[in-house]
Amino acid sequence: MKQEAFRQGIKGAAPVVLGYVPIGLAFGVLAAQAGLNAWEVFFMSLMVYAGSSQFIAAGMIAAGASIGAIVLTTFLVNSRHILMSASLAPYVKNFRSPLLALIGFGITDETFAVAMGHVSGGDRQPGFYLGLNLTSQLTWIISTVLGAAVGNVIPDPRVFGLHFALPAMFIGLLVIQMREILSILIALMAVTLSLLFKIIIPGNWNVILASVITATIGVVIEQWRLKSSQSSSG
Amino acid sequence: MMLVTYLPRMLPLVILSKVNIPPLVLRWLKFIPVAVLSALLGPEILMGQSGIDFSRNNIFLLAAVPSFLIAYKTKNLFYTVFTGMGIVVLLSRIMV
Question: pTM for the full model?
């Protein structure tokens, strides 16, 4: 029984794997150009395992930023994972804590999207998440290290559009998550607020502020719609 | 660096799965993925070196449009990223 769930997890990782290959390679190349060697990339992908933060960190390293700034920015960029982890939590209520600690390590934007898609199916075996996370991280490690290995041979990453890998990934994930008209409104709101805050406030606060405010507005709109449809049918 | 990535992912899962989350909070959390991804995407595409760039010179913005379409049609991360990058390469050549 457990093995079957694990295998399902590996299969579920297919879209993540495909997405990770170009993004991982892109990151590896950019990291190499920022001065990281293949070993450093390996350990980063192993221990940190966070696509967007690795990208941003590589950029900051190239720009000569301090360790403190990099750590703080990493935390802010990843703060959304707090919220994502929280939204996954209700579905894994019966898992034991050590297991959750292990699964939690593998939560990324992509595996989160797959996991959320899976939980709506109703079947919630721990094996699934482990298969998902293991396959995804393995792919990430391999493609980033590969990218780093060839990174210094490539003259200019812009030639291959590598800098667009991350935004393209976000676009893909976003579209997969949007299931209703309200989502489009939410997305537009979040984009606007994020831009606004990015201009007004230095650093990476824009993401978490925009997300929190937009999600709140979303709930308000939803509640308002529920109430107005109740009163019109009464 | 590992700690600041790991703890935000792990703690809510471990702690919050043990408590009952009120339905309103659950609905709020439901909006988070779209909100977060959009908040991340906005500046990546719309901000250039010096502020917001809605001009026709913004290659990322131009490439984003077909990327969205492809993502919508295929719902496939790989195709989206791969063709998106390809479009950027094409546009860079044409527009230089």
Answer: 0.75
